[in-house]
Structures are given as C-alpha cells and as structure tokens.
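Let us begin with a simple case.
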Amino acid sequence: MRDWNDEELERYSRHIILEDVGIEGQEKIINSKVLIIGAGGLGSPIAFYLAAAGVGEIGIVDGDTVDISNLQRQIIHTTNDVGVPKVESAKQKMLLLNPHVRVNTYYQMISADNILDIIKPYDFVIDGTDNFATKFLINDACVLANKPYSHGGILRFSGQTMTINPHKSACYACVFNAPPPPNVVPTCSTAGILGAVAGMLGTIQAAEALKFITGVGTPLYNTLLSFEAKNMTFRNVKLVKNPKCRVCGDQGLTSLTDYEQAVCEVKNDKNS
C-alpha cells in the first residue's frame, strides 16, 4: 500500500468512499497504464475522465492537428489550440486537470509497423479512432499482443461499443470480419455527428477502462452496446466468439498488415 497524502485522499475521495472501489481500487487506478488511440471526439472525454480518475500513466496517440471543425465535439481542445498537435493540446488539459498523472504523447499515425511497440507498455487500450482501417488494425494488434481493449464507433446520432478480452471473448473481427470497400460507408465529415454523441460513447469507454482496472462489475465482453440518441434508446446485442475468426480463431493472425482506408463507421441499430 502506498503512502497517501491529504491532497490525494481529498481528490479521489468520491472513488474511495465507493464500496466497490475503496482505497484498494483507487490504488489500482493509480498504478495502471491506459493507451488512448485518437484524441478527437471519443478521445476527448476518455482522456479527461481517465486523468480525473488518476490513471497513473496515460498514452495518447494521434497524428493530426486541431481544426476549427473539431471543436463542435472534441471538447479537450479550444479555439486557441487550432493548428496545435492534438496530443499536445490534450496533454496540456489533462495535466491542468490532474498534475499527478503521467501523459505520454505519440504524434503519429498508427500503422502495422509501430502499433505493437506503442501498445506494449499498457494494461488496457481504447480505440477512439474514426476509420475502419485503424479499428481493424487495433483489433488485430491487441489480439496478437493479448491486450484487452475497448472498441467505439459513432456516426450521426448513433454509437456502438464493445470490450474485447483477446482469445476469451468475441473480437471485433468475430462480429464484422473485414472493413467495407472504400466509399461505401459515409464519414462523419459527410454524414455529420451530433457532438454530444461523442461524449456519451467516450464516457462509456472510459467507464469500461476503469471497470477493467478495478475489477468492478462486468465489462462489455461478448456484448455490443449500441444507442440511438434521437429517441435515446439503448440496445445490448449478445455476441459469440467465432472459433473460425480470421483474427482470434484457431488459425488466427501471426503478423500485422495495414488495411485500405475507409472512414468513420457505426453499425445501424436496425441491422444489428
């Protein structure tokens, strides 16, 4: 057990008084390492809540800079950050919120060449990206490296998420198999996104990470949670691990390759 100072006890008091978390759970949070891939609409609330919770080491990956069109939903960035690398903008706000956390920045795009090295030090990975190619690559890498992770996707008024425990629960490829052909699925830039939807889903993903770290509750293993914000309906779809899955099945992947890019998806509730 670490030595707690008065400031830490006060800062994390609302976690500590939770019967299911307590001082032991908060210590697990402080000793944990979580990687967020994407510092945009999903990554913004995820980064804020993980920093606020006191996750000891947080990595954040993004190769983009802040654009004014991002500000409608990417709440960790401000008008003054336009043109600044998103990872640096996010780090600054996270440390202002909680100077006790360590933030590692990766100002680069994820690829088959670098992802395994990037995810290696972390206990849990969160997919906050907006394109199929990267989502499938994250799944492949996490399964190959046996890293638990949270998938998330948003579009228009909808969101979806699932948590993957490699080789034990269904992975992303068990459900979706492969990316769609380019230009088949609309993008957030062409179809739009209600800004608050990103906050809703990112907050759920942050909660999944904290549940995993503390051992509280049941993560969304073998479950696809989807919601439609227009009428505020939520749906849980039970999933089954596919023994013949090309990624996590008996004859699964042994190496990584990059996928052809296609952007920003979510599975429609009516088809799930």
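The second case is a distinct protein. As before, the sequence precedes its structure tokens.
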Amino acid sequence: MYRRRTNPILILITIFFTFFIVIFLLIPSGSNHAEKTVHSFYQYEQEGNFSSSWQLLHPTIQERFPISSYIQDRAHVFMGHFGTDSFEYTLENPNKVSNFQMNDEKTIDGYSIKVHQYYDSKYGQLTLTQNVIVSKVEKEWLIFWE
C-alpha cells in the first residue's frame, strides 16, 4: 500500500495564510472604525439625541460649539426651520487623509467621509452634503467638520 507524504512546508504555508486571513477579518481597519463612528453620529442625530452625537465630535469642534448651544442649534435648524423630525443619510467610502489642516497650528490624520442627508421638509425634498473628517484621539474615533 502506498502512503502519501505530506509536505511540511505546504502545511506551514496553509497555517500562515489561514492565520493571516483570520486576523485580517477579525481586526477592523481604521477606515471601518471611522465609518462606524460616522454611522453612530448620524444615527444619534436622526433620533434627535444631540447630546450623544456631540460626544462624538473632536474636542476642537466641541470648543467651537458648547453642548447646550449645539443641542439648541441642531434642533432649531433641522426640526424648526426644515419642519422635519428626521432624515435619511448615506455615506461614501472613507478616504485616508494625512496632515489635514484643522486650524492654524494643528493637523490631523484620519479619514474623510462624504455624507449625504436627505430631508423631506416643509420646503420639499432637501439634500445636505457634508465632508467629515474622522480621526483617532487617544483611543476614540471622533468627528471633525471641514
């Protein structure tokens, strides 16, 4: 009876590729984290939960819009002026950005994501398009507006 020999190199290569594929699938990339952050932000906004969406803003944006002003402005503009209580949105694919100029002093690295918001308002159907930058600050992914 003939017995087939297994090639140890082939076994090692198979184990290596299997390990690599499992690691690749289990560890989300930066662009996945960025996209999840943007989805969370706009889901909070859809719900009118502006205090939670504010928490996902970059500290520079939080300084520009204190939480009480942010909550009041968002509700006033979108719900008051547009006459709508919700919207739909879509995201384009994230694009990596390096050295994005935040202000006169600071640059950030992260991902740019174009967001399209669709409102069925008292003025008809409106589409609002905005680029957001998502960067990692310490251990959190946060949103910065261009």
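The chain has one domain: 30-145. Helices lie at 8-26, 30-47, 50-55, 59-64, 67-81.
Keep these points in mind for the review questions at the end of the chapter.
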